[in-house]
Design a protein that fits this description.
By secondary structure, this protein is of the alpha/beta class. About 40% of the residues lie in helices and about 20% in strands. The chain starts with a strand and ends with a helix.
Length: about 450
Amino acid sequence: METKVLKFGGSSLADAAQFRKVAAIVRADPSRRYVVASAPGKRFPEDIKVTDMLYDCFDLAARKENIEDAFAKIEARYNGIVAELGLDLSLDAEFRKIRMAIEHHAGKDYVASRGEYLNSLILARYLGFAFIDAEAGIFFNENGTFDDKHTYKALAALLAEAEYAVVPGFYGSMPNGTIKTFSRGGSDVTGAIVARAAEASIYENWTDVSGMLMADPRIVENPRVIEEITYRELRELAYMGATVMHEEAIFPVREACIPINIRNTNAPEDPGTMIVPQSDRFSDTVITGVAGRKGFSSITIEKDRMNTEVGFGRKVLNVLEDFGISFEHAPTGIDTMSVVVATAAIAPCKDAIIGRIFRDANADSVTIEDDIALIAIVGRGMVRNKGTAGRVLTSIADRDINIRMIDQGSGENNIIVGVSESDYTAALQAIYHEFVRGA
C-alpha cells in the first residue's frame, strides 16, 4: 500500500474544530498512514501558543515562583479539546508528571516538548491510531547533532509495527535518555524524518497557507502561489527568508527523493505547492520566487594585481574563519574582492578584522559598508531565458535604486542583488512585478 506521511502545524491543531478538520483530511485517504503533530498554536491573534505557555512555566520554576495558575491554563487548554471532541480520555496523570518535572527543574527541552506529546496523545485517540513517542525512535548524538543512522533504523522498525500512527514532532532523545528538541519549526524536521523512515511516497506538510508564495505577502500584495519548486530552489528561498517550511526539513526527504506537498488545513481542496527533486516544468513567470533579508555588510579589499597572487582569497577568508565568521557571497574583480557577511557577526570586531586583513593579505585598502539588504531571485527557468539579469537590473533602476552588489550563482538558477536597506522593500516589489506582471 502507498504510504503518505502528514505533518500538521500548531494552527492546524489549535482547538477541537481544527482537530476535526485534520481528522477529515487524514480519513479521506487510506494511504495517509503516519501523522506528525505539533503543539496547539494560536486560536486567535492575541492567543498564546502552548509551547510558549510551557516556557513561561519553566521560567517561573527557575525563579522559584509558583506555577499553579500558569500550568492550570495549559491543563484547561487540553481538557477543553478533549471535552469538545467527546473523547473518553483523561490526561490527569500526564499533567501531574509534567508539573512535578517542571517544579523539580526538569530540562527546558523536556518541558517544551510536552506540548507536542500531549497533543499527539489526543490526536491518536481521536483518529484511533497508535501512538509512537518520538523519544523512542528519534535520536541525537552526544554533541546534540541528529543521529540519522540510529534513528532511521529504530524508527522504521517502530512504524512497521503500526499500520497507522501519530508521532509527536519537535523532539527526540539523547544517548542518556533525556529529551532533546530540534530548533523552532522542528516539527517540520520530524515529519521529514518520519517520511524518510517510512519510505513514504509523499510528505504532506499541512499548515495555514495554500502553499509557498512567490514573495513575502507583507511586502508584495497577494503574491502568487508557487505550484512546483525543486529542493534546490526551496533551499535558496528558505535561506533568504521564505519561512513556510523549516529549512532543515528539506534534507531527510531530499536524500530519499521524496516529494513534499505543502497544503492548507483550512482549504484542503487547494493543491498547494509541490516540492520535488527535479523538474522539467517551467513557470510562465521565468522565476520561481524572490526573497530577501536585511542586516548585511560588505568588506571590500583592494590590492593591485590581486588576480595574479595565488592564495589571496584564502588569506582573506582565513581571517574571517579565525574570528568565527561565515561569509554569504564573495564577488571579485581583478584588483578587488568583496566579502558579504552578517553585520551582527562583525560588529564587535570590525577594527580587528580590518587590521588582520591589512596584515595577512598585505592589502592596499580595506573598507566595510553596512546597511545592505540581499535579495535572491531564484528559478530553474532562468538558465533558458535570455535577458533575465537585465530585467532584474532594469526593474530596480526604474525605481531609481542603486545596486550595491550583484552575484549570479554558477548554476545560473539564482541571482543575488544587494541594495541599501532603505531600498529593500521597493526593490523586491519591483523585481516581483517585473516577472509576474502580464505573465
